[in-house]
Amino acid sequence: MSKVLEINSLNYKKNNKLILKDINLSLDNGKIIGLLGANGAGKTTLMRLISGVNAKTSGQIAVAGVDSKAARKSCVSATYSLTSFNKGAGEKNTKVKDVVKFYIDIYPDFSFEKYQAMAKFLEIPCDDKLVNLSTGTGEKLEIALTLARQVPLYLLDEPLNGVDIMARKKIIKSIIQWKGDDSTIIISSHYVKEISSLLDDVVILKDQTVYQVSPVEDIQAKYHLGIEDYYEKVYEGGLDDE
Ligand SMILES: Nc1ncnc2c1ncn2[C@@H]1O[C@H](COP(=O)(O)OP(=O)(O)OP(=O)(O)O)[C@@H](O)[C@H]1O
């Protein structure tokens, strides 16, 4: 199986503070991977380093074999906060369809057809202003925009935050439905139980580094625990390795 992501000896410091240390990660193509970790563990930071938004302090990151920061950006589609579309004066009238047009204009790999199918399923209105979208609809829009690009690697950072149970279920269904066989999705979420049915593998961040990378079925076979219970035990330090 080909590797979609290879990270070697990655370190990241911000304002002299070590945020991530000695990250080593090698992920196969075609999977859905849960990136789990407590608040502040570094999930968002790691995603920003992979997508090339943040610059690493040291180490190597390659996505689908591509390691330059600029080239990596065209291999990765990451959820991007919509609030930045409303920052400038006079930008309060930005509509959903304006953001879709922006994506079409800047990403040659953006599939409007795929976006439309997802927008229909997720009931995303195209004429509404961004400022008027509910939190859940905003999250749905971020997911649809992100998955409508055709790239090897998708990064979904907390896509279920502030979203009600019905919308969470719909977002999870849409991720399953629109993930291509040749692509990989890394998803971070504190709703571990809800996303567990999606996941092939989990990556757990703890103490500023990768604590574990494992197929979900290996964890279930070895510990006889669901992912949520296993993850809690990792953080509580209560795992019996027998
Ligand atoms: N601009 C910054 N300057 C200094 N420290 C930062 C900065 N951004 C993040 N950090 C620190 O980096 C660490 C990792 O933060 P990050 O947001 O990546 O964690 P996270 O796992 O995504 O957390 P959460 O689950 O709360 O979203 C935290 O200790 C945070 O305080």
Automatic annotation (TrEMBL):
Pfam families assigned: ABC_tran
Domain of life: Bacteria
Keyword Transport: no
UniProt keyword list: ATP-binding, Nucleotide-binding
One example GO MF annotation: ATP hydrolysis activity
Keyword ATP-binding assigned: yes
Every ABC transporter domain range: 5-232
Name of protein: ABC transporter ATP-binding protein
Organism: Companilactobacillus heilongjiangensis
